[in-house]
Recover the amino acids of this structure.
């Protein structure tokens, strides 16, 4: 009978209210600001942040860079982490949010060697370890961090009505069996997830996947508007974890329109073996730091919109 | 751990727990929301405790067991009691879902404190000591609450199978 009781209670518990609604209620009480506005703006961050885990090189940076220079104190570096089902980091992105709302970001390949392990394993142990490793590799201070499960992106893509990406050539993911034609296509749900997860069968494995994350984020950022922002906040808001010292809503106030994002991938060396059967990519500290500085200064080269 | 982090990590679990003890998701939402607002205002003290989650769970439980929700709890109980009466005659004993839902209805009409003890034991997998902490009572009271709840559920179970046996 005990097993029956367990099942009965679990079924009752499954009827729970939506955590996102409760979270929104909590924030509403705390902020005492017009609900729609705050959430709408916040979701742009969420999208930038959430989406953030992935990213764009197709979108050109705005010409209004001087504004940022006038208020350097408010620019912030945010570490965005996309986690897999066991809380390893599948996507790591250091993004510099300027005061004018523009974003320059650097993808950190997840296989970068840190001691005898790889950087993607640090988050699960302790987010602070990942933060300090990223600071070490990039030479930049991390002000805040946010994490979202990669599995959420299928739904997120659905909420914005699909995310457009472009593939240089047709691809088949041997793990999921999902196939993608060459050229522009709109992805959502499971196909979006397969696109974000595929690394087998790509010439550069995880590095190609990083480019896909970037292309997806670019596509996503382009689709976010104030019309779908609320729905997006409902869908993704509850599953995003941020560090406790970060007032995300205050931070979100700086975004008034579509987020513009420019992303590059941190340069790395050839794979090396760091432990039994563990391949990792060595970071080149001086080259990496210089790259990040250029990227954050807005010196990113224009890139082709289609990915492998 | 900061308050926001706590909420991010535990909100879903807390809502499940509150829904299981109240058997009403709207009431669960009200209670959890109120409790978290109160917890936030004194988070500095709560986060220093050895088990913040257990403490917040205790706040949720107390809130539900308090006089404020007595009326709401009674209304839910009446509603579920009607359901419980109807379920046995309609249920196909071979149907696992029907059996589970019948049990769910019977748990819903238990006294509030007995149900809370049951949820803490069978859903939250708490020890007697932890349950005693949440319910603010002794461990022997915890054991007697659970024993009484199980006895009631078993009596219903027997009555139900007998009824079904006669019909079939």
């Amino acid at each position: 009978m005990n097993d029956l009781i367990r099942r009965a209670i679990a079924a009752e518990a499954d009827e729970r209210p939506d955590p996102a609604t409760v979270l929104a209620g909590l924030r509403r009480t705390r902020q005492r600001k017009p609900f729609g506005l705050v959430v709408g703006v916040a979701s742009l961050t969420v999208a930038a942040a959430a989406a953030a885990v992935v990213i764009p090189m197709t979108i050109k940076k705005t010409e209004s860079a001087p504004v940022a220079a006038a208020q350097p104190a408010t620019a912030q570096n945010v570490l965005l982490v996309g986690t897999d089902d066991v809380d390893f980091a599948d996507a790591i992105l250091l993004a510099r949010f300027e005061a004018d709302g523009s974003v320059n970001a650097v993808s950190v390949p997840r296989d970068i060697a840190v001691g005898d392990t790889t950087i993607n394993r640090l988050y699960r142990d302790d987010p602070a370890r990942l933060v300090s490793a990223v600071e070490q590799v990039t030479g930049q201070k991390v002000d805040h961090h946010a994490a979202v499960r990669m599995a959420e992106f299928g739904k997120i893509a659905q909420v914005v009505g699909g995310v457009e990406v472009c593939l240089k050539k047709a691809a088949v993911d041997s793990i999921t069996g999902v196939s993608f034609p060459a050229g522009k296509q709109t992805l959502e749900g499971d196909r979006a997830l397969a696109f974000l997860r595929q690394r087998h069968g790509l010439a550069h494995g995880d590095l190609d996947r990083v480019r896909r994350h970037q292309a997806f984020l670019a596509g996503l950022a382009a689709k976010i508007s104030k019309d779908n922002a609320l729905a997006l906040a409902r869908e993704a808001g509850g599953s995003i974890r941020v560090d406790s010292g970060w007032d995300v809503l205050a931070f979100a106030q700086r975004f008034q329109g579509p987020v513009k994002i420019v992303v590059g991938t941190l340069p790395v060396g050839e794979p090396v073996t760091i432990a039994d059967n563990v391949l990792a990519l060595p970071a080149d500290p001086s080259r990496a730091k210089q790259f990040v500085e250029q990227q954050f200064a807005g010196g990113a080269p224009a890139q082709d919109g289609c990915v492998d | 751990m900061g308050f926001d982090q706590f909420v991010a990590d535990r909100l879903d679990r807390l809502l499940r727990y509150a829904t299981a003890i109240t058997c009403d998701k709207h009431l669960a939402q009200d209670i959890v929301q109120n409790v978290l607002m109160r917890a936030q205002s004194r988070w500095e003290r709560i986060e220093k405790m050895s088990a913040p989650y257990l403490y917040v769970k205790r706040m949720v439980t107390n809130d539900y067991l308090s006089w404020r929700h007595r009326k709401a709890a009674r209304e839910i109980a009446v509603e579920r009691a009607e359901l419980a009466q109807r379920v046995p005659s309609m249920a196909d004993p071979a149907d696992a879902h029907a059996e589970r839902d019948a049990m769910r209805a019977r748990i819903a009409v238990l006294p509030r404190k007995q149900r809370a003890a049951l949820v803490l034991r069978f859903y939250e997998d708490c020890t007697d000591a932890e349950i005693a902490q949440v319910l603010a009572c002794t461990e022997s009271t915890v054991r007697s609450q659970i024993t009484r709840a199980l006895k009631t559920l078993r009596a219903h179970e027997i009555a139900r199978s007998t009824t079904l046996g006669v019909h079939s």
